[in-house]
């Protein structure tokens, strides 16, 4: 069974308290989950770096979640779009937003383009532009170009932020990395715990 968001908090709190349930945890769940997002991004980058020679810097599918979302029309902009259910973990070249395709046609994935990169397309082959669907992310939405008029739903594969998941939702991470994942979250929070808070707002590094 994959770790759930709730279990991450419970395991981290247990480690931080030394197994003593009477000790109060200092960190709110939100802080733990934000630390988990940062650690998850780092683990993915490491895994991609290690696998780059054999897999061409591909993202391990065990980090990905899949959701289906409706295609809607932004009438003000005249563009079709879908809403992202959660924030996407920031990765190199926006690989956190891994793949988008029409439901029922997953082998024909759309092409991701730079955010709002309209100028890029002006120099590309017009036939390609007119025959292929592109998408780009803007905030919590995905906007499309050249999407078919009959496309009503899309499948989105992405590395979603843990912070936005439901408490009982499983976190997409390889089982072989779960222990390391929890350990690194705990390490990060311990460092945060011993680093004094700079309340002077003098932009100088914190010192003890």
Give short descriptive properties of this protein.
alpha+beta; 5-stranded mixed β-sheet; 31% helix
SSE order and pairing:
Elements: H1 5-16, H2 29-50, H3 52-55, E1 65-70, E2 72-74, E3 79-83, E4 97-102, E5 111-112, H4 118-121, H5 126-131, E6 134-138, E7 141-145, E8 153-158, H6 178-194
Parallel strand pairs: 5-6
Antiparallel strand pairs: 1-8, 2-3, 3-7, 4-8, 6-7
Helix pairs in contact: 1-2, 1-6, 2-6
Description of the structure:
The longest helix has 22 residues. Helices cover 31% and strands 18% of the residues. It has a five-stranded mixed sheet with strand order 2-3-7-6-5, with no helix packed on it. The chain has a three-stranded antiparallel sheet with strand order 1-8-4, with no helix packed on it. It starts with a helix and ends in a 14-residue tail after the last helix. The protein has 208 residues and is α+β, with helices and mostly antiparallel strands.
Order of helices and strands: HHHEEEEEHHEEEH
Overall mean pLDDT: 83
Q: What is the straight-line distance between the termini?
A: 43 Å
Structural class: alpha+beta
Oligomer, anyone?
single chain
Task: Give helix % range.
Answer: 25-40%
- What strand order characterises the main sheet? 2-3-7-6-5
Task: Tell the overall outline.
Answer: elongated
Low-confidence stretches: 119-123
> Strand count, sense and closure of the main sheet?
5 strands, mixed
Strand content: 15-25%
Which value, in Å, is the CA radius of gyration? 21 Å
Number of helical regions: 6
